[in-house]
Amino acid sequence: MIKELTYLTPAEILLIIDPNTKIDELVSFTFSDLILKKVLCLYKYETISNNQKKDPLVIKGESFNKYKPLKHENVFINHFVKNPELKIRLSELINLSFKNVKSADIYKLKYIYSNSRMKNYFKSNLFQKIIGIKVLSDNGIKTQIEIKRELKRIRSNTSKKNIKVVEELILMKGNILLIPKIPNLILETITKFQSNNSDVNKTTFVDNQFLLFQGLSYHHLQSLNSYELEFKTFFNSNDNFENSLNDYDINIDSDSTSNYDNYNYNTGIDNYDIGNH
122 — phi, psi (to 5°)? Predict the structure, then answer.
């Protein structure tokens, strides 16, 4: 398992894979990762309407107070720091969070690339610094190739319902979101594994790596496709936000494994309800 998949966030991984990744994808995966970490939570409705599926209420989660957010995550989180009782529609949260960000390029440059974790993968010469551009370094290109290869291998094993892949999916933490259409058998095995090791202070060895359980809720993964979260619509409807130069459209048949570079990432997980668990 390449180390980057065990500690970088989905948004950081996506930018290494493709620096032209669109803002709605970065935000979608960042928000979903915060749900997985139980930092934020989607309000649990007794009955849910179509509008609520597309634009649910967001509240803070049970892990909120002990989580230390990265800068690109904090655009969501800081509103709940100011108002712990905040209950806000996702569309309103995005509008509020990106009110001062202004553009996709600014979000990437000042909120993701600026993190010291990313300095080993991106570089810029004097001219690029002046105009605010980052490009993959030699190490970044090498890491990009390795990440693509690893994700392709893990995706293949997951689609074949290879139970041995469970250990790797757990090591990936939030980057499990980059693996589409995880079979229920795999998810149930992950949930069972987590249930049997529920003590957050308990450690175990997985794939010769030291794994610490930190309150991740893989149980919540099964809920993400119960909602129809329209991040692209949220940004397109925001007249104050500039989508910048992100015109590259990633979209191929999700059942294909031959053209991985153009793969359309999605959680692909069905039939569960996110709530306070």
Answer: -130, 155
Task: Give the DSSP per-residue string, 42-86.
Answer: E---SS--HHHHHS-EEEE-TTGGG----HHHHHHHHHHHH-TT-
Output the CA torsion sign for 50, 233, 96, 79: positive
- 217 HSE (CA, 13 A, CB side): 21
221 in any annotated domain: yes
Is residue 34 within 8 Å of residue 162, measured between CB atoms? no
Domain with 99, as residue range(s), is 4-245
The torsion defined by the Cα of 66, 71, 77 and 79, in degrees rounded to 10, comes to 130
Q: Helices 23-36 and 10-17 sit at what angle, rounded to 10 degrees?
A: 150
Instruction: Classify residue 250: in a domain, yes or no.
Output: no
The phi, psi pair for 168, rounded to 5°, reads -70, -40
Residue 149 contacts by C-beta under 8 Å, 6 or more apart in sequence?
Answer: none
Residue with the two structure tokens 């049997």: 196
Residue whose entry in the numeric block shows the structure tokens 């130069």: 245
Contacts of 73 (CB under 8 A, 6+ apart): 9, 30, 33, 34, 39
pLDDT digits (tens, 9 = 90+) for 81-110: 999 999 999 999 998 998 888 888 899 999
More confident residue, 21 or 228: 21
Please count the structural domains in the chain. 1
Q: How far apart are CA 36 and CA 10, in angstroms?
A: 12
Separation CA 269–CA 182 (nearest Å) = 6
More confident residue, 77 or 233: 77
